[in-house]
Write a structure and sequence with these properties.
about 240 residues, mainly alpha, two-stranded antiparallel sheet
Amino acid sequence: MSVSLHAAAEWGETPGAFERAVEAIEQGDIVIANLLFLEEHVKPILPHLQARRDHCDAMAGVIADAAIVKLTRMGTLDMAAPESGMRKLIKRLRGSSKPSSDSGESRMRMLRRLPKILKYIPGKAQDLRAWFLVMQYWLGGSDDNIEAMLRFLLSRYCRHEGWRGGEAPAPVEYPEVGLYHPDLAERITEDAAALPAAEAPKGTVGLLMMRSYVLSGDTAHYDAVIRALEAKGLAV
């Protein structure tokens, strides 16, 4: 199995980056398109995704421009179908689209709840459940979740029988807001007592970090700042 990753931010800066992304789409059996919102990113790649859509095992568009999401084709789930039963079901499950102060938190709770609800609806709903699970894996953001997402997609949609029916762990859920320290056993904790206790610190410093960096393990820059502050006798 070969897995390749391509960042749209590099297409205009790194020579050959866009061409490599196009080649990967043309050869990919399972294509996942995420976080494509800017017109300068969506417009050039969209025709290549459209051309590959009906010839790959599955294509998943999640957390992206509507034109990208509509390219989703996973088993019986076809997001391009006009007002299909699946699309209507999604709208009903989403509820009101009116913004509110807690709309973000409500949607995250619903995202975690939907796969559990859809698990008991037979037939086509299982592919819709798979799409929501892919989104949940991706938002989880850790190496474990990304690996599990790939295993999950292969187990359901790969054309090669040897890959079908495998086991994939459920998405690991992490708190939306939590605490981080390089000495923690887990990536994020909600328990302040789990943080290492400093002995007679000169003061305390709080750092605000991006959750996605912590979950992905891309924390070397954060860790260096924390260690430097601790070396000065400060609690972090």
